[in-house]
Amino acid sequence: MRSGAGTAFRTVGQLSQGDYVGTRGAAVGGWTPVSFQGKAGWVKSSLLSTSKPKVSASSSRTNASSVSGTVTSTTPRSYSSVPSSGGVDPWGFYWGQCVSYVAWQVRSNTGHSNFQNMYRGVHFGNAENWGSAARSLGITVNSTPTVGSVAWRTSGSAGHVAYVTAVHSNGTIDVSEYNYLVTSGFDTRSNVNWQSGGSSGFDGFIHF
């Protein structure tokens, strides 16, 4: 991993086959800007793949009984092309974080097209704050998932939010998200038992 888009730039990290990286924007000259283990850098695009690698059953982030779906370092094009400035996206969240991606979904797919970190005088901030912040604005927060709602939890260092893409008859959900399976990157999960608690579950749903 290089500090810039080319071999002339210094090495800032070393990746191995099967490592997850998060993309930070569009490729330049055959090099892709990525995040890996908390560092920003550039990797030759031909070395990256969007196919799911095999994951050890002992992985601390996934297990076959609770998570399935797609792991990828590629994000929807319109989000990945959003210009970042100083690590902050145009709506006031930190680029590559779950809140930044979900805020983009809210802006793109709901009547809250001007949603931002400080919205109608209320600070949303970390994911753990989103439920109470939404309630204070009269936005519905409940335990009923719907397609297009925001799955939200408070557990963890700063909570987590994800965008609901499907609701199944058995009560499980599909989500798309950032910074969960891929550090600062995009992934999807299918048939998530959101009531399971812990890092794979959610507290409820925000209906923007």
Could you give a quick summary of the protein structure above?
With 208 residues, this protein is α+β, with helices and mostly antiparallel strands. 11% of the residues lie in helices and 26% in strands.
Rg over CA atoms, rounded to whole Å, is 17 Å
Percent range of helical residues: 10-25%
General shape: globular
**Backbone structural class:** alpha+beta
Q: Mean pLDDT, as a whole number?
A: 81
Strand content: 25-35%
Instruction: Return the string of H and E elements.
Output: EEEEHHEEHEEEEEE
First-last Cα distance? 39 Å
Please state how the strands of the largest beta sheet are arranged side by side. Answer: 4-11-10-9-8-12-7
Strand segment count: 12
Unreliable segments (pLDDT under 50, ≥5 consecutive)?
Answer: 53-74
Number of helices: 3
